Amino acid sequence: MALKTVLAIVLLSLPRISSSHCYHPDGTSTSDDYAPCHNDAGKASMCCATNRTTANVNGCRTDGLCWEIETQNVWRESCTDATWKDPSCVKLCTAGIVGDPIEGRRDMSTNDIAITVCGDGSMCCGFNATSCCISGGGFWLRNNTVYAHDHNPASRRSTTSMPTASAAAAARMPQESDFDNTPLIVGLGVGIGIGVPLLIVFTALLVCTARRNRFERMSGYIDKKVKPKEQPIIHELECTLPNSELDSKPAADTMLVSPASSLPRSYDGQTGTWTALSRSETVFTR
Predict the structure, then answer these.
(1) What total number of domains does the chain contain?
(2) Residue 27 carries which DSSP code?
C-alpha cells in the first residue's frame, strides 16, 4: 500500500517536471496551440505554436526561438518553466513594451514577440526593427543565453579579419604609377602642336577682317561727308597785238582802225564762242 502511494506521488510529479504546458514570461498559461520543442526528462523547454491547425503554424529552431513556416518570421514564444528561471528559457524580449507597424504596441511579458534578425547576427525586438539594427542595439543569442554583446569567438575573429581582408584588397589595387601614360602624353603633344598654329591663324584672320571692315566704313563715311569742292575753270587768253609799220612818208593826220580780225577776243565758256572786242587805235603823224 505504501509502495502504491509512493508510485502515485512519483507519477504525479513527472508531468510537473516535464510538463507539456507552456507559459508566457509573466507566468500566464498559453493555449493548447503551443507545445514543447523537446520533452527531455527533468529539463525545461521552449514552446512554439506547433499545434495550430489554422494559419501561422510554427516550427522550432535550434536556438530556442520559433519561426512561421509560411512567412519565415522569427518569434520568441513561451517556455515550460512558469518562472522562466530555467536556463533553457530564452530570456529575449521578455519585459517592457514594443511597438511595430504590424502588431502595434505589445507587452512583451504577456505575448509572443516577433524578432528581427540583423545583418550582423544580432537580434532586435519587433517586426522590421531596422533602426535598432542600424544603431547596434540588438542582442546576441548564444546557447540559449542572451548577451548585450557578441560572445562568439568565431564571430569576433570573422569581424576582426574583415579589416585585414580590406587592407589586402587595398594593397592589390593598382596605383596611379602602374598605368602607362605614354599614349596620353603623345596625344596631348600632338593636339597642342596642331591647335596652337590654327588658333594663331584664326586670330590673324579675325584681326585682318576687322581692320578691313573698319577701313571700308571710314572710306564710306569720307565719301558721304567730305566732298571736294569743284574748282572753277580758268581760261587764259593770249592776246598778241600785230606789229604795225609806220609809213616813213609824212602824211596827213590819219586815224587807223585795226581790222576786226586783229582785235583781241574773249571766250564765252558757256556758249563756246569767241567774241571780238571793239578797239580802235589812233596814230597821229608828226
Answers:
(1) 1
(2) S
